TrEMBL record:
It holds the Pfam family LytR_cpsA_psr. NCBIfam families: lytR_cpsA_psr. The lineage of its organism: Bacteria, Bacillati, Bacillota, Bacilli, Bacillales. It comes from the Bacteria. Keywords: Membrane, Signal-anchor, Transmembrane, Transmembrane helix. Residues 130-267 form the Cell envelope-related transcriptional attenuator domain. Belongs to the LytR/CpsA/Psr (LCP) family. Residues 60-100 are annotated as: Disordered. This is Cell envelope-related transcriptional attenuator domain-containing protein. One of its GO terms (biological process) is cell wall organization. The chain crosses the membrane at residues 14-39. The keyword rRNA processing does not apply.
């Protein structure tokens, strides 16, 4: 039988596993409800914002492009109106092949990435420690789609900060969020644009504020029966921490993503001002991010209607192995190539130049 102290420690570590993505949804809600909550979101964001670790800022670029398109449309409308007033027809110009320059295809960013890191720490003022939950989210403002990739915490990868191979969860312990981001970029061969780190203290209070989480339990397990039901914080935790079957961590990763979708669907229905304010207070103490407020407001405007049905999932597969008496997960090379290609397909689009 597992010792009580060990069970308690494991449970505390795993509370964070279903907290991810709550942050963006809560702030979207705060903006949609009114001015006070916009002020409250700004106040909270001042507590959680950390200086960016990357020079590139794709959300800012998307904001700029969006504003540019609006201005271009206005200018075109003004020109059309002027032509009508002047009685001019369409302007003449050269036709034929020589008038059309040869085009080349280039890759253009159409989406951006956020690393969602559940940090294993027992101190709610600290964000040191391992990231026991690692999800890479790809967000596409044009399609309003979100794609989540769960990465097993024991994945055996190269960690640049210490110049050695280790569990990917340890990258955060070695270099905090910047270290985890650098490791993810090398492992997945894509840019990681932003991060959100959250510690486990947020989970229980958030779920209590929501009044529990309704979810379709996929099979009988740990005191739960198969079927749709409302879970308390403890029951939800037990559901997403369960790994004692043939699927192990991979089944747990799938249930984490299922829980994320359920939390998003139920959070966007919250309209109680006091409840939203309370959630913001909880998150302000338990998250850190390098997404600035301007970019947050852009996210809120672009993804304010996101629901579970708009969220797709990608899962890595691999096998457990032992090395120097420690357990790791080895990701199959062909599966890693598949996932890398899928991520690049989501991030980039070929355009004529």
């Amino acid at each position: 039988m597992e010792p009580r102290k060990s069970r308690k420690k494991t449970k505390s570590k795993l509370i964070i596993r279903i907290s991810l993505l709550i942050t963006a949804v809560i702030f979207i809600l705060s903006i949609s409800i009114g001015g006070f909550f916009l002020y409250k979101a700004k106040e909270t964001w001042n507590e959680v914002y950390e200086e960016r670790i990357s020079k590139e800022d794709p959300i800012a670029q998307l904001r700029k492009e969006k504003n540019g398109k609006k201005e271009a449309a206005k200018e075109k409308q003004r020109e059309k109106q002027q032509e009508t007033e002047d009685g001019e027809g369409s302007s003449s110009g050269e036709t034929g092949e020589d008038a059309v320059p040869a085009s080349t295809e280039v890759l253009e960013r159409q989406a951006f990435t956020i690393a969602l890191l559940g940090v294993d720490t027992r101190d709610n003022n600290s964000f040191k420690g391992r990231s026991d939950t690692i999800i890479v989210a790809v967000l596409n403002p044009s399609t309003k789609k979100v794609t989540l990739l769960s990465i097993p915490r024991d994945s055996y990868v190269y960690i640049p900060q210490v110049d050695k191979y280790d569990k990917i969860a340890h990258a955060h312990a070695y270099g905090r969020a910047p270290g985890a981001v650098e490791t993810l970029e090398r492992f997945l061969d894509i840019p990681i644009d932003y991060y959100i780190s959250i510690n486990f203290h947020a989970f229980r209070s958030i779920v209590d504020e929501l009044g529990g989480i309704t979810i379709d339990v996929e099979k009988d397990m740990i005191g739960l029966k198969k079927g749709t039901q409302k879970l308390s914080a403890d029951q939800a935790l037990n559901y997403v921490r369960f790994r004692y079957d043939s699927e192990g961590d991979f089944g747990r990763n799938r249930r984490q993503q299922q829980m994320v979708k359920a939390i998003i669907d139920q959070t966007i229905e919250v309209r109680n001002p006091m409840k939203i304010s309370s959630m913001l207070n909880i998150l302000g103490k338990n998250i850190r991010t390098d997404i600035n407020l301007d970019n947050l407001l852009y996210l809120a405007s672009e993804f304010n209607s996101v629901q579970g049905q708009n969220i797709d999932s990608i899962l890595l597969t691999g096998k457990s192995f032992y090395y120097n008496n420690r357990s790791y997960v080895g990701i199959a090379n062909e599966d890693l190539v598949r996932v890398r290609n899928k991520l690049k397909e989501l991030l980039y689009v070929k355009t004529a130049n």
